[in-house]
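Before surveying the methods themselves, let us examine one representative protein, pairing a chain with its fold in token form.
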Amino acid sequence: MKNIHAPSYSLKFEDAVQVWLRYWNGELQNRIAASYDVNQGRINEVLKEKTHIGSKQQALRLRKAA
């Protein structure tokens, strides 16, 4: 039986980079959150640069390289 009180997934720096790329490609925050099994607030924290500082710059470098 799954523990319903267990914490959801914790976003890693690499996930945050992908969050930026997906967001810039037009994906909605709630869809991104669902794919990582996290609250939409965690995605918003990345996009407001409250967490995973530097992920936006890394995503920009990847986007330019593509």
